[in-house]
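Exam revision sheet. Question 4 asks you to relate a sequence to its structure. Input first:
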Amino acid sequence: MVKHIDILAILFFVWGGFQLFIGVVLALIYVGFGAVMGIAGGVGGEEELLITGVLMGGLGAVVGIFVMLFSLPSFAAGIGIRRRRPWGRIVGIVVGALALTSVPLGTALGVYALVVLIDKDVGEAFSTSGLVSAE
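Answer key, structure tokens:
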């Protein structure tokens, strides 16, 4: 199971990149629709449409940033797991457990992460990685 550690680190980087991409796309879509609505409301003299466009664009930006922030723990887990840091294993378990709710890709990643990171041999690889010999 120890050979799966590097694969899992790469998968966490890919998952984080996917979350980052989705956040950017969501923000662009909502801000774009909000801008179109706002411009149409401003040109047409419809104040309600202008306000709705501004609110939609602002909410879209907030949702996009929120989704992008969720990619940070995935990148942190990938870095920690790749470097065999004990905290990386803990972050990986947490991120894997949270990914279980993202059906179907996140569920597959979460199950794989939990199976790999809870293994006894993997735990030993993380506990001895930061130790320096007394030679």
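Marking note for examiners. Residues 4-44 form the longest helix (41 residues).
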